[in-house]
Amino acid sequence: MKAAIVVLAGLAVVALVIAVTVGTSNQDDAADADIGVAQTAPVEVIGDWLPRFEGSQPDPAAGVMAPRVLGTGFDGAKHSVRPGDGRSKVIAFFAHWCPHCQRELPRLTAWLAENDLPAGVDLVAVSTVVRDGESKYPPSAWFRDEGWPLPVLRDSPDNEIADGYGLYSFPYMVVLNGAGAVVVRVSGELSTTQWEALLATAAATTG
């Protein structure tokens, strides 16, 4: 009986070692996946920049044509924001270190897992204001670990996309109509109900 207890104890230790090793290995693999991944990249912001959004109403950018954006994702694939293509757009800006963004991103990810975007509406995520060493760095791992299902545009080191769209605080959403003009801009965490209302606003302005 004593021998059996010793054997069982030994097996438990081995199982614990294996579990710790596997867990550490998975963490190392996740970290290795982002080695060499540039967290920012050059972008082109073409057209007049929007005035900075400070929450005042009426929004000075309402009805103003938004600039076009050419950039890349964390995988190097080319992505763009092309206002005026007939499709409405919701452009969502996130900073990995922002506590509000850290709550907003998983909430929107969960919503997207259960719902489709309205017809004629595109959702574009922008990773911006990257800070090495801050919480959830690197953002490429943060978006991946949260399960974000859509491409992410990397902002430039100088945050040109954020500045071009008038970002002031996080999270930040800009809705463009099908003609490419600003419909509404909002900053701060959105509840699921508020998020769905924002999408409904975008859907009503396609074409």
Descriptive overview:
Residues 1-28 have low confidence and may be disordered. By secondary structure, the chain is of the alpha/beta class. Helix content is 35%, strand content 19%. The protein has helices at residues 2-32, 99-114, 139-146, 160-164, 192-203, and strands spanning 44-46, 68-72, 78-81, 88-94, 121-127, 152-154, 172-176, 182-187. It is globular. β5, α3 and β6 form a beta-alpha-beta unit. The strands form two sheets. Strands 6-5-4-7-8 form a five-stranded mixed β-sheet, with helices on one face. The protein is built from five helices and eight strands, in the order αββββαβαβαββα. It folds into two domains: 1-32; 44-203, Glutaredoxin (3-Layer(aba) Sandwich).
Descriptive keywords:
globular, 19% strand, 207 residues, 35% helix, 2 domains, 8 strands, alpha/beta, Glutaredoxin
Quick summary of this structure?
35% of the residues lie in helices and 19% in strands. With 207 residues, it is α/β, with parallel strands linked by helices. It has a 5-stranded mixed β-sheet with strand order 6-5-4-7-8, with helices on one face. A 3-stranded antiparallel β-sheet has the order 1-2-3.
